[in-house]
Give the backbone structure.
Amino acid sequence: MTPKILKEIQKRKTFGIISHPDAGKTTLTEKLLLFGGAIQEAGAVKSNKVKKSATSDFMEIERQRGISVSTSVLAFEYKGKKINILDTPGHKDFAEDTFRTLTAVDSVIVVIDVAKGVEEQTEKLVEVCRMRNIPMIVFINKLDREGKDAFELLDEVEQKLNLKVTPLSFPIGMGSEFKGVYNIWKNNLLLFTEENKQKIGKTEQIDDINDTKINALVGETHAENLREEMEIIREVYPNFNEEEYLNGTLQPVFFGSALNNFGVQELLDAFIEIAPKPQSKIADIREVKPEDDSFSGFVFKIHANMDPKHRDRIAFVKIVSGVFKRNTNYLHVRIGKKMKFSSPNAFFADKKEIVEESFPGDIVGLHDTGNFRIGDTLTEGEQLNFKGIPSFSPEHFRYINNEDPMKAKQLAKGIEQLMDEGVAQLFTLEFNGRKVIGTVGALQYDVIQYRLEHEYGAKCSYEPFSVHKACWVECDDISSDEYKEFVRVKQRYLARDKYNQLVFLADSQFSITMSQEKYPSVKLHFVSEF
Ligand code: G4P
């Protein structure tokens, strides 16, 4: 690997911002782009969220799908670093999308609303990051509003999210009394004034917390409070330690207001200093390092073209090692075919462009006519498969029926491609071959029906099917009597997923518990990778 390529790898920071809807993810993303000079004014990043009022309207999901193509990856340069932000939908119906995107990030920023505290989606997403030891920085947003006490919030973050935190900045006042943020990391004070609101704020260097300059800047009471609070922080919270942060065992916390541009630069400056460069990734046969000479990457997201006349799609590939080059033959490991790509796209904040080469940490968009599936690996010829894109049990299950016998082929192809995109999961029942669609949100059924009709010319209908949970089945000895009995007794509830793995579609928690007691050698997993 040449020094030039090593430098390119060192430069890259690929991350995702996660939050419960409305905490301020879009606003923060926009402000980061603004600081990076990637956009000139706020409002340039379209909100990709499904508005609350529109959740009964599946066309909103279609709209969202269109927008999220353009916000899938936002890249910009800042202080010599190349920053790639990967979009992670906050809406729970897209949770699976977000989980998959988290397999392609090297770190995350968690945004929390100061008034609402830790919310449900944040809990779920942080848990996934925690399980993978992804380094996390927490940003507590909307300090210009009245909210919870800062220490109370830090406690809440520790308890609900099971994190060990250390504040690197701390608010002075809140809401109408919000004076600014003391930057513990850099030992300076950023003042919040009306004129600073939309600009990069003014900072005052404070070398000593007892400096009376603080009193003059924020007033006696706030200055005294701040000193007391700093004392508490010193006593209660651990010092920041970069190694612990990178291991995922310590999470620095920043306070600010994304809307008012406040505390965002502190966050960004700390981020580029501490956030990890592209990381190694585990494949079935070995660990792949970004510095490895040969190229490898994996598909973490597939996006269908919005134009129904063109059924091509974009497969988003995260580059794990080596250099990806245009018009070069690469092995699509799952199907064993060599492929080359004449127009790989790189993504920037406001445009996408054809690129000649991309480096570890980067995302390239490849035009695809139906060859890719989420999780697929590309290499220079090595037979390796990246791990770690699991499916979770869907929440809803329905039989899918063909409503137009002349279009059976189109229906089958449409279902297969939508499942490859990760819109939903398909299960085929073992005993009668019927197809069952499992989704995270009920809305996805409308989307599937609509897209099958408009993109594939096929008609479908659904029938209710009561399933509590999909459990992936594992047994070391499938010739054992216990396994055979399990398969015989549960035959009406057994299905195959698209990878031909056996799945038990349990109708109740009771039936899962009973099965575990009765057939202990038959292991039931709640995620598809185990
Ligand atoms: P999301 O992507 O996490 O869903 O949140 P988004 O950034 O869209 O922000 C949700 C709402 O919170 C928006 O208001 C946004 O303006 C507001 N917001 C974000 N950061 C701050 C902040 O620091 N302070 C205050 N006071 N508000 C903030 P909205 O009314 O829902 O939308 P809009 O009409 O303003 O776009």
